[in-house]
Amino acid sequence: MTALGDEIASSALDLARSLWAELGVTGVPRRHDWQALDLEALIIFTASCASGDVRLRARTIDWCVVNNRYISSLRLHHFSRQAHPTTRRTAERYVSTVEAAMKRHRENRRRSPSPVPDLRRPSLIQLRLRALAGVSARAEILKLLLADPDRPRTVASMVAGAGYGKGGVAQALDMLTVAGITSAEAAADRLVYKLTRPVELAQAVNGLPAVFPDWGAIFKITEGLVHYARTASRDVAARVAAAAALAHELRHDLQSVPGAERPPHVITPASVERFDSWARAFVAEQAQAGASAADAPDVTYTVHRLLLGGWIATVTEPGQQPRPLALSDAPELRPERRAQRRLRTDQVGAADVIESMLVDIRTRDMQRSQGSLVSRQSVSDSLLPAMSREFASELLQPMQKGQSASFTEEFLQRWIASRRHRYTATA
User: How far is CA 69 from the centre of its chain?
Assistant: First the structure.
């Protein structure tokens, strides 16, 4: 395997490990606590990369056996069929191993030390919905609608994310509509569906994570990059052709990954190097790779969307109680200010408090390098307002009133570095 292959495969494995840590498989830090997981897509992805970690493969199979009541066999086969061609056989063998182990477990009824997931974690909204609505298309539909409750959805637009056939999704939506949980209306000669009471549903399932990534698309892109890196040819012309073909192939799935940088246009050997750098950065960003948890400051920032309007941010340092960091001025009541900022109503105050968080992080950075006398007033960065607006739009948009989302300083540092690189690269 090439050095590029080693690096990208390692990041892919780190991604799988972190996501399984959210489910209770111990051994690595949890880096995706604010992102909604997709269990079956993760199982198939693990099959494609777990050959590099036999222990992880064994632990995840044990987890599936003990917690099989949370798993949808229909979705497993759906994502197995959708997997990258080079990993499909591996995925099918992995799923067969899981299903055989499940059968033996049911027959023997032996207890296993494998962990049971903590369904209270924000990232496990899918499993909480399954506890409420069963392992069914209904649970997946509710997850998709909660991800963006203001967006009406057609049956066809939910099939891929739900992981069920069009008929099953339509039937589930009929049942939810009859029960009054969703509503249907005609739009352009087709039915579109929305949740009737999204806030009450979010409260019933103990809140929502900050974002709902399309893990099926992310995993498919990552699998393609891993295969490309592993099989990279030494022949320059062949390398250019392979990178160009993959860049074109990935563009559709990248549309499902908001905020992801698009790959460069590949036409020359120099552009291949840029594509390789993009591939490394994409997989590393999904894996949230960076400083180790042991070295990272244990500081957490929490953003609350208030029931009466506006936002508040708090910061929690090791061994201390949360302290207020910033409070918005309820932009819903200040239309003239909203017009000046040219932002959506629910993003004005969010951008304000996010900017205060980013200033606080920059202040901490400068204090580490220049001493503790550096003040917030002396910190200036022309990119912070733009990054704050982007953060609010990208990560806080799904939040309903009364909800909150927490972010570690480590994650925010990586996010800032990624966006700063993008801004400077396009300047």
Answer: 23
Angle formed by the axes of helices 166-178 and 137-147, nearest 10°: 80
Asked whether the beta carbons of 103 and 61 are under 8 A apart, the reply is no
The pair of structure tokens assigned to 153 is 């959805």
* Dist CA 206 CA 347 (whole Å): 23
pLDDT tens per residue across span 152-197: 999 999 999 999 999 999 999 999 999 999 999 998 788 999 999 9
**Radius of gyration of the CA atoms of the chain, in A:** 22
With b for 16 or more beta-carbon neighbours within 10 A and e for fewer, the 336-375 pattern comes to eebeebebeebbbbbbbbbbbbbbbbbbbebeeeeeeebe
- Torsions phi, psi for 368 (to 5 deg): -65, -35
**How many C-alpha atoms does 378 have within 13 Å on its Cβ side?**
11
Query: What's the whole-model pTM score?
Result: 0.71
d(CA 143, CA 132): 12
398 touches 211 (CB < 8 A): yes
pLDDT, tens digit (0-9, with 9 covering 90-100), for 380-403: 677 888 888 888 887 887 788 888
Q: Are 184 and 175 in contact (CB under 8 A)?
A: no
